[in-house]
Write a structure and sequence with these properties.
1% of the residues lie in helices and 47% in strands. It is mostly beta strands.
Length: 754
């Protein structure tokens, strides 16, 4: 058997003693690598001799934000945003943690998201304890890795690559690092089996950025969730617990992504991050309960004594709930200290709860409401931000809350505080603040060390990446890991032989147009757009990976080759064909129908969740292309729908009810339109291109004309955009308000602009 190194939570750590105000030695060991702290429960283990708190900040930094900074090696990494209107951009800033001096920054423009009201940076970065690399997910789903010096290592546009959905609330959350994996959480609508919208967890190789596993531990979501997983060692492996957008508390094997169990507690999303107490997991929520008419509660769920790694995910019965109380917290997460849970409710009350029984021992009114912000515990004190801008330093006991300090800030407090090396940090929607505690000595443990585990008998081969995306003429090399049933890596393998595999449950039975040889999958120069699974291995163990080929430029599709043989459930007597399988989320948003003797793409109407549908049909790295298609909206004099194209992260939409041609990215960042009379049941040709100059300004050009008539020489609309998008996947857009009137697309063409 093979010895393995795994990260654990706060086990066997050494205590460091750092004396004097200067603390020149040893302060690199005091860190705050993730927003919830070393145990994932909002507790700092720093202790101070002769502590006092000066309410005047040591320094502040002009940066709007809604998250928690993370700190390593004297550097602080802050997720925030700046600017107004079209100039708003998110950014990660690296500061000197002691002085607040900027070391480096990277900015990100929003694109084609549903975020409104400047709801940006509702999340945090995470630092890898081993490499010191920094990982961040932006509000619209750009997942990116940096070195500590600010060099980008790898990135994924989760929206264009995996079909990540965005929501008006802008909630993003934070990734976690577990061993060699960095794990993030979002709702996606991808392809094939992963086509339905689900709350999913994605694990990437933290160094290469290759996707290792994708986990789908819940059911259809009703809401988004940004619950951060909390990890522990249990069942002889590493597991994490998190809330999901379908109202479940889930347990997932962190090493291989296998869902182990779920407990259904809410009809809406569970956004709070849970905490662990002995053999229970404690978690609040703020949505409608599944078994009462009340809204929200806090529950303690008894952990199963054992799990079967080979069995399907278990659904825990109602009796798994040990206790509940009426504490309602929509997005704020609890802190646990010993057998006491501290939670800020949605009405701004701080509660102390007995972790054994759920009894509320006391509550202290601190504000009228609270959103997102969670308390932090350190050295006998709670640091509690409240949405209105008030911030409290509180000494809790079983008798009540002794308020030591009350501060009030301009703007709102939505992020949670961080403590590192005797300094307190807090980010408001106006500024980032730092206070340096007055003290004579700090004692504090280093960040959690590792532990050794034995890998058991090999049970499967895991290809990495587990999901590949190719273009014609490209290839991908794999590494193959041998896993035991608990997910431990027992070693590497040459992988053996893999062949095309069609799962028996697949509704669209197609194969990926590629070849596999010597651990490499290749798409020929004339490979067709396709998708499929591969199965194989070596000896008695096997594994599966999935892959797609997306068409290269030039590309065209008129749908005439599709056979409409599937019976429609909402239009009796009508038949359709599923759209191209490699197009992200297409199966649930579009279908191929016969119309007036032609095959065309029609937007589906049976899922209100997808009344607004955006489907990517090309590679995220494409740029400098001209896209054209024929489009039409059904309707009547009162109701028409919207239809359009996605070109390099811009939406070009023919808006039926508004009678406009509109160019946008995020609707509140960039939206420009011109009048254009749209007739229902009338085909139009829509054409667009994006040109980026040497200064980085993108000019979005589009024209529209009745199909069959001469193309006009002039563009109907031209929109300049400073710091424009330089690349992005082509796609299709349809919006059928309340799923009433469909839209149609045909004769898609993509050619190079240069």
């Amino acid at each position: 058997m093979t010895k393995l190194l795994r990260l654990t939570l706060f086990a066997g750590t050494a205590i460091l003693m750092i004396s004097g105000p200067g603390r020149a030695l040893g302060n690199d060991h005091l860190e705050w690598l993730s927003w919830r702290g070393p145990e994932g429960n909002g507790v700092s283990h720093e202790k101070y001799k002769d502590w006092s708190f000066n309410e005047k900040p040591s320094w502040s930094y002009e940066l709007m934000g809604r998250g928690t900074p993370v700190i390593a090696d004297g550097k602080m990494y802050v997720f925030g945003y700046r600017g107004e209107g079209t100039e708003v951009e998110e950014l990660i800033v690296c500061l000197d943690a002691k002085t607040g001096k900027k070391i480096w920054e990277h900015a990100f423009r929003d694109y084609i998201s549903d975020t409104i009201y400047d709801r940006y940076s509702i999340g945090s970065a995470v630092v890898d304890p081993e490499t010191r690399n920094v990982y961040l997910q932006t509000t619209n789903g750009l997942f990116i890795a940096f070195t500590s010096s600010g060099k980008p290592l790898w990135q994924h546009s989760m929206m264009e690559r995996f079909g990540r959905l965005t929501f008006p609330n802008g909630r993003t959350g934070a990734p976690i690092v577990e061993g060699q994996l960095v794990i993030m959480h979002c709702i996606t609508s991808y392809w094939g089996k992963q086509g339905p919208a689900r709350d999913r967890f994605y694990a990437f190789d933290k160094k290469s950025g290759d996707i290792v596993w994708i986990s789908e531990p819940g059911i259809a979501p009703k809401d988004s969730s940004f619950s951060t997983p909390i990890v522990e060692t249990r069942y002889g492996t590493r597991v994490f617990y998190a809330g999901t957008g379908d109202g479940n508390l889930v347990c997932v094997n962190a090493l291989n992504g296998k869902p182990l169990w779920r407990f259904h507690m809410s009809y809406g999303g569970v956004n709070s991050s849970p905490v662990i107490y002995k053999d229970t997991v404690i978690c609040p929520h703020g949505k409608e309960n599944i078994d009462t008419t009340e809204e929200g509660r806090m529950v303690a769920v008894k952990l199963p004594a054992k799990v079967d790694f080979t069995a399907p995910q278990a659904v825990l019965p109602a009796k798994a709930e040990l206790w509940r109380n009426t504490t309602v917290s929509f997005t704020s997460s609890p802190v646990i200290v010993g057998d006491r849970v501290y939670q800020v409710s949605k009405v701004g009350e701080l509660l102390c709860i007995n972790a054994e029984t759920g009894e509320v021992l006391w509550h202290e009114k601190l504000g009228n409401d609270n959103l997102h912000a969670s308390p932090l515990f350190c050295d006998g004190k709670l640091y509690v931000p409240i949405f209105s801008g008030k911030f409290y330093v509180i000494e809790p006991s079983d008798k009540g809350a002794k308020i030591l300090h009350t501060l009030e800030f301009e703007g709102n407090l939505i992020g949670s505080p961080a403590i590192c090396d005797g300094r307190l940090y807090l980010h408001s929607t106006k500024k980032l603040y730092c206070w340096e505690f007055e003290q004579d000595r700090i004692t504090g443990p280093a960040w959690p060390d590792g532990y050794f585990a034995d890998a058991g008998e090999v049970a499967e081969i895991r290809p990495v990446p587990s999901d590949v995306l190719l273009q014609p003429g490209s290839k991908q090399k794999f590494k193959f890991q041998l896993l035991d049933s608990a997910g431990h890596v027992a070693g590497d393998s040459t992988g053996g032989s893999f062949s095309k595999f069609i799962p028996p449950t697949a509704k669209v039975k197609t194969e990926m147009d590629a070849s596999f040889k010597d651990g490499v999958i290749s798409a020929s120069a004339d490979a067709k757009a396709s998708a499929g699974a591969w199965k194989g291995g070596k000896g008695k163990v096997s594994g599966i990976f999935r892959g797609r080929v997306l068409g290269a430029i030039p590309f065209s599709e008129n749908f005439e080759s599709y056979n409409t043989v599937v019976d429609s459930k909402i239009d009796p007597g009508e038949k359709f064909a599923y759209p191209p399988l490699p197009w992200i989320g297409a199966r649930f948003k579009w279908e191929v129908r016969e119309l007036d003797g032609n095959k065309v793409l029609r937007k589906t109407l049976d899922r209100v969740l997808f009344q607004r549908a955006m489907t990517f049909i090309g590679h995220p790295d494409l740029k400098n292309y001209t896209m054209q298609a024929d489009v039409m909206t059904d309707g009547n004099r009162r109701i028409k729908s919207d239809v359009g194209l996605v070109n390099q992260r811009y939406l070009i939409v023919l808006k039926g009810n508004a009678n406009q041609l509109e160019v946008s990215s995020n609707q509140e960042r960039l939206k420009v339109s011109v009048p254009y009379k749209v007739k229902y049941k009338t085909w139009y040709s829509l054409k667009s291109r994006v040109d980026v100059d040497d200064e980085g300004t993108a000019t979005v050009r589009a024209k529209v004309w009745p199909k069959g008539s001469d193309e006009p020489e002039a563009w109907t609309i031209e929109v300049p955009h400073k710091k424009g998008h330089v690349q992005g996947a082509p796609g299709l857009f349809g919006f059928s308000p309340q799923s009433q009137k469909p839209v149609f697309v045909d004769n898609i063409s993509i050619i190079s602009s240069k």
